[in-house]
Amino acid sequence: METSAQRISLKINGAETQLDVAPWTTLLDLLRESLQLTGTKKGCDHGQCGACTVLLDGQRINSCLTLAVMKDGASVTTVEGLAQGEALHPVQEAFIEQDAFQCGYCTPGQICSAVGLINEGKAKTPGDIRELMSGNLCRCGAYPNILAAIEQAMGKRQGGAGQ
């Protein structure tokens, strides 16, 4: 163990993990580089695009702004940890059914943010969803389908895109 590294414990996608981490390592870099969980994307690296959104103890956060050593003992869920075996999470299913992605780069962050938004229970209207998802950018402009997918996952919409 490097003298500047600190041992931390994290529960990542349900699995207890102990890691030696440099104090300056972001949670994003830990996930991508040390654990090869590359679903979480590095977009702006400044907390402005949401591509790096993961769930920390059930709350959505920008992992690029989060130092891993400060989250010792926390539970982290990435897009890879949402499915239960072969069964996709309802938000993942809704994103597919509503064609809520184009290039797909922002999709993992959008999905994790949507799961967090639904868990928070604050979104009651399409306007609420738009506002609460405003920290997640899609450069392709798939916003109408992202909104439809979130509404579907919330049980407010059924069927495929265009309905």
Overview of the structural elements:
With 163 residues, the chain is an alpha+beta fold. The chain is 29% helix and 15% strand. It is built from 5 helices and 5 strands. It has helices at 27-34, 90-97, 107-120, 126-132, 143-153, and strands spanning 6-12, 15-21, 53-56, 59-62, 75-77.
Supply database-style keywords:
single chain, about 160 residues, alpha+beta, 5 helices, 5 strands, disordered C terminus
Offer a concise description of the structure.
The protein has 163 residues and is of the alpha+beta class.
Strand order of the largest sheet: 2-1-5-3-4
- SS strand fraction: 15-25%
Helix content: 25-40%
Strands, total number: 5
Q: What is the arithmetic mean of pLDDT?
A: 94
- In angstroms, what separates the terminal alpha carbons? 56 Å
Structural class: alpha+beta
Contiguous uncertain segments of 5+ residues: 158-163
Overall morphology: globular
Q: Multimeric state of these chains?
A: single chain
